[in-house]
Amino acid sequence: HELATELKRAVAERAFQLHFQPLVDLNSGAVAGCEALLRWPHPVRGFVSPAEFIPLAEDIGLIEELGEWVLEQACGVAVGWPAAMTVAVNVSPIQFRRATFPLKVAAALARSGLAAHRLELEITEALLLQDTESTLTILNQLRALGVKIALDDFGTGYSSLSYLHRFPIDKIKIDKSFVDTLTDQAGSAPIVRAIVQIAAAGNKTTLAEGVETAAQRDLLRQLGCQQMQGYLFSPALPAEALARLIAGGD
Ligand code: G
Ligand code: G
Ligand code: MN
Ligand code: NA
C-alpha cells in the first residue's frame, strides 16, 4: 500500500501540521479554546484528510506515535495562549487503551508547562460501550491528572443518554448532524434541548459542532447550549493565524 509507506515516512519525519479551530462561548462571544486538528500536507496529493489517514495509522500501528506528537504539539502551542483558553485533542480509541496513555499525557503536560485543566481530551461514544470497566479506570486516571474529558460527535453512536452519568465526562460535543437540521420545521431542536438539559443536570458543558449560520447560533444560545464551533466563526487555522485572531488583529 503506497499511502501506508508514505504515512510511515511522514510519521518518522513529523511531516504534519496542527491547525486550531476556535471553540466560542455562546454568551460572551469569547474564544474559550481551540480543537487541534491534524493536517498532512502531501507533496503530490495536497492535504490528505485525517478521516482517511487516521484509520490507516490505526491499522498499521502508527497512531500512538502520531497521537503522542499531536499531544506534545498541542500543549506546546496552547501554553502560549491566554490562560483562560483550553486546547482539545482528539484521542484514538487505540491510543486511549494503551496502558501508557495517562503517562504520555502527564509527560506532555510536564514538558510544555501547560496546566492540566487547560487540556481537554476528545473521546467518542464507542469507547463508552466497549470494556466499560477499563474505560472507567482510564478516565479516572486521566481525571486524576486534572485534564478534562469531552465526548465527541455526541448522538451519532448508540449510547443512551443514561450512560452519560456513569462516566466522568466534562463536556458533550453535539454532533454536526443535529446542528444541520436545527432550524428546520420538525427539525432537531427538541433533541438538542433535551441533550442540553440532561448535560446541565450532570454538570456537563455542551458545545454544538459545525455551526454555519447565525440562525443556528441564535437558537443554540436560546436552548442553553454554552459553546459552539464551526465555520460561522472560523475554520481550523494554522497556529500563527489563530494567534492573530485571538490577539484581535487580522
Ligand atoms: O478536521 P477534519 O474535519 O478534516 O477531521 C476529520 C476527522 O479526523 C475528524 O473526525 C477528527 O476528529 C479527526 N482528527 C483530526 N485530527 C485528529 C487527531 O489529531 N487525532 C485523531 N485521532 N483524530 C483526528
Ligand atoms: O469528528 P470531529 O468532530 O473531531 O471532526 C471535526 C471536523 O469537522 C473537522 O474535520 C472540521 O474541519 C470539521 N468542521 C468544523 N466546523 C465545521 C463546519 O462548520 N462545517 C463543516 N462542514 N465542517 C466543519
Ligand atoms: Mn473532535
Ligand atoms: Na468533533
How would you summarize the topology of this molecule?
Layout: H1 2-13, E1 17-25, E2 31-42, E3 46-48, H2 50-59, H3 63-78, E4 86-90, H4 93-97, H5 101-112, E5 119-124, H6 125-129, H7 132-145, E6 148-154, E7 171-174, H8 176-180, H9 189-201, E8 205-208, H10 214-222, E9 227-228, E10 237-238, H11 239-246
Parallel strand pairs: 2-4, 4-5, 5-6, 6-7, 7-8, 8-9
Antiparallel strand pairs: 1-2, 1-9, 1-10, 2-3
The chain binds guanosine-5'-monophosphate (2 copies), manganese (II) ion (MN) and sodium ion.
Salient structural properties:
alpha/beta; TIM Barrel; 8-stranded mixed beta barrel; 10 strands; globular; binds manganese (II) ion; about 250 residues; single chain; binds sodium ion; binds guanosine-5'-monophosphate
Number of strands: 10
Give the overall silhouette.
globular
- The CATH homologous superfamily is named EAL domain
The CATH topology is what?
A: TIM Barrel
Low-confidence stretches: none
Secondary-structure content class: alpha/beta
> Secondary-structure element order, as H and E?
HEEEHHEHHEHHEEHHEHEEH
Distance from first to last alpha carbon: 42 Å
Query: What is the topology, as strand order, of the major beta sheet?
Result: 1-2-4-5-6-7-8-9
**β-sheet strand percentage:** 15-25%
Mean pLDDT: 95
Number of domains: 1
Rg, alpha carbons: 18 Å
